[in-house]
Structures are given as structure tokens and as C-alpha cells.
Amino acid sequence: MRLRTLLLCWLGLYCFLGIASAQPPVIIDKPILWNDYREELMTEYARAHYGMDITRITPRAVVVHWTAGPTWESAFWTFYHEAMSDGTLNVASHFIVDRDGTIYRLTEETALNRHIIGYNWCAIGIENVGGVGGAEDLTEAELAANVELIHYLRQKYPTIEYVFGHYQQDIARESGLYLEKVADYYAFKTDPGAYFMGRLRTALVAEGLKFWPE
Fold first, then answer.
1. Which of 14, 37, 131, 213 would you label with 88, given CA atoms 20 to 30 Å apart?
2. How far is CA 192 from CA 6, 34, 62, in A?
3. Pick from 106, 207, 198: which is nearest to 143 by CA?
4. pTM of the model
5. pLDDT tier at 10 (50, 70, 90 boundaries)?
6. Euclidean distance between CA atoms 91 and 125, whole angstroms
7. Nearest by Cα to 65 from 54, 50, 84, 78
8. What are 120-152's pLDDT values in tens digits?
């Protein structure tokens, strides 16, 4: 418990002093399959769900997830292909954070990715490896990497105001960002867990971002 408290204090001081600066964290580019077909599916998705003719976003929020799988590779290959079995845009996220804190970038940061209902038109997604069977088991290294990555994104895109977990999708409607034109389109989520989000909120307190209570 003492080690965890010290880590949170260090992370908060890290952000407060601006040590992370505008320099990006170490990010490994690992692009998923990207072609005209994916762009067509992105456009179709945006038109159907948001009434928008877009394939790129202006980031307003960062949404934190877990993969519910044991490795970053399993998540990567889930996201890799353009289409789901029903021919619609495949799910994908902008980043995957491995259990050792390694950050992988899968798409352009401003690409429209399908990772959270109602917010894809304005949200960057971060997947964290873990959560198998709903276990809240994300690591200290993942926490530190998320802090560094969100700081970088906030510096690069001043339009980002909100950070929330996938499980907070309902309360996050208070932001006014929720938009969904397909009736009864909803999925219940628990990721990445209240414990991880609480610690992330504490570590990023100096960023001026808006969080919701766990």
C-alpha cells in the first residue's frame, strides 16, 4: 500500500512539474490494415451513427479500456482487419498499452476508430492489456504509461477536455459529447475498472482534465 501511495505521489509531481513536457513518450508504431476499404467503412459508420461524413476526428476526449485478453498481439489481430463479420467497420483503438508499459500506436491519432458507442466521432481510445474475466489487474507499468500518453495527447491536442473509462460511458453523457443515431445501440461495459481510473485521475490532477468519480 505504501509503495502504491508513493507511486501516485511521484506521478502527480511528475505531471505538476511538467517533466513529461511536450515530448512524446516512446511509442512503437504497429499499424493495423489501412486502405480505401477501411476508409469507406469508416465513412459509412460515421454517416449511420453520427450523421457525419468524416473519417477523421477532432479529439475531445480520451477513453480508457482494457482488452479482456492476455496479450497485446491478441488485441492487435482482433483490430487488424477492416470489417467485422457483418461487413461493418471493425472495432479498433488508437493505442494498446502492454503489461510492461510498452505503448503501441495502431492508427493515426485523429482517425475515427470504433471503440466506444456514442463517442467515436471525438474520442481517442487507449486499450490496456488485461481484464480477462473482468479481473481488475492492470499493472503499475500500464498506469505510468497511460499517464505519460494522456499527458502527451493533451499537450498535442488542446481540444481534449475529458478522460473517462469505458464503464463510465453513461455518466460521460454529461459532457454533451454523446451522439448516437441508431436506436437501442448499446453495450454494457466494465473496463478498465474503477480502481485503475481512480488512480489515473489522481495522477493527472494537474492536467486540468475533467474526470468523473469512480
1. 131
2. 22, 27, 13
3. 198
4. 0.90
5. very low
6. 11
7. 78
8. 999 999 999 999 999 999 999 999 999 999 999
pLDDT higher than 60, residue 8: no
Q: Is 152 helix (H, G, I), strand (E, B) or coil?
A: helix
Nearest-CA neighbor of 199 among 156, 149, 155, 139? 139
Task: Give CA–CA dist 194/134, Å, rounded.
Answer: 12
- Residue 7: all three cell numbers together: 507511486
- Residue 100 CB neighbours (<10 A): 11
Domain boundaries, the chain: 2-207
CATH of domain 2-207: 3.40.80.10
- The answer to whether residues 174 and 121 touch, using CB atoms and an 8 Å cutoff, is no
Strands 103-105 and 95-97: antiparallel
Q: What pLDDT, on the 0 to 100 scale, is given for residue 11?
A: 45
On average, the pLDDT of the chain sits at 92
Cell (9 digits) for 55: 473519417
Which single residue is written with the C-alpha cell 507499468?
141
At residue 77's C-alpha, the angle toward residues 67 and 73, to 5°, is 65
Q: How far apart are CA 176 and CA 186, in angstroms?
A: 17
